[in-house]
Inverse folding.
């Protein structure tokens, strides 16, 4: 299967700071990447769809100025949580779409804790 | 709009017994249906998918799922459960119409397999 690497796997930051999470497709080109957020014991909530070379498409209720997504190349998408607050603490998971096959390939997730 | 329902929060089964994890979906157009598994603090792993063809699809680790169009269901099954199958299972649907490109996940079902 295809491999997606997500970094960092966990991060602790102070309230008001910004945190960047990277998502890389290691052995395939991901024209589209998806960012999900998962709360404890809950499902994945789609935050945004990231397309290489264009602006991300955010789901309703997701603040685009809060969660900045950049998809600068076919193998890298980044999510920056700006001015983080404790309520932003969550498990963030990215996934890549290899195209044509339908299934998604997920990173290992990044656990963000904002103090 | 597309949606996925997993009616059971938790399924308990004894090792060696068959298991079923239920999923129903709603989507306009032909559905792409998926099952993913998540182990604690990890990303999701793809198990199997239905795109077209045989209604019974076989996937990883001995799992299979049956697509039932009339009942809009895609239940996950395994003839003989293992303790190592204990995990969180997500059903997902991806629409094929314009705007239905994104993958939506069900709430998840936690499977406990008892030795």
């Amino acid at each position: 299967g295809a491999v997606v690497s997500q970094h960092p796997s966990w991060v602790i930051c102070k309230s008001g700071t910004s945190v960047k999470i990277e998502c890389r497709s290691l052995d395939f080109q991901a024209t589209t990447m998806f960012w999900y957020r998962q709360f404890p014991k809950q499902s994945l909530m789609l935050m945004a769809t990231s397309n290489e070379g264009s602006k991300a498409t955010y789901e309703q209720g997701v603040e685009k100025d809060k969660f900045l997504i950049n998809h600068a190349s076919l193998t890298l998408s980044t999510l920056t949580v700006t001015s983080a607050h404790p309520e932003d603490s969550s498990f963030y998971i990215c996934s890549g779409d290899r195209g044509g096959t339908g299934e998604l390939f997920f990173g290992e997730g990044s656990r963000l804790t904002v103090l | 709009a597309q949606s996925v329902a997993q009616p059971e929060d938790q399924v308990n089964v004894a090792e060696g017994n068959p298991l079923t994890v239920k999923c129903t979906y709603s989507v306009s157009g032909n559905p792409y249906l998926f099952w993913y598994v998540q182990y604690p603090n990890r990303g999701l792993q793809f198990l199997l998918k239905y795109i077209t063809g045989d209604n019974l699809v076989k996937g990883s680790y001995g799992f299979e799922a049956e697509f039932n169009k009339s009942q809009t269901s895609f239940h996950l099954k395994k003839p003989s459960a293992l303790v190592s199958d204990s995990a969180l299972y997500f059903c997902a649907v991806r629409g094929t119409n314009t705007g239905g490109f994104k993958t939506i996940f069900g709430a998840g079902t936690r499977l406990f397999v008892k030795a």
Notes: Chain B touches chain A at residues 32, 34, 36, 41-46, 49, 51, 90, 94, 101-108 (CB under 8 Å). The mean pLDDT of chain B is 91. The CA atoms of residues 57 and 77 of chain B lie 10 Å apart. DSSP finds no helices and twelve strands in chain B.
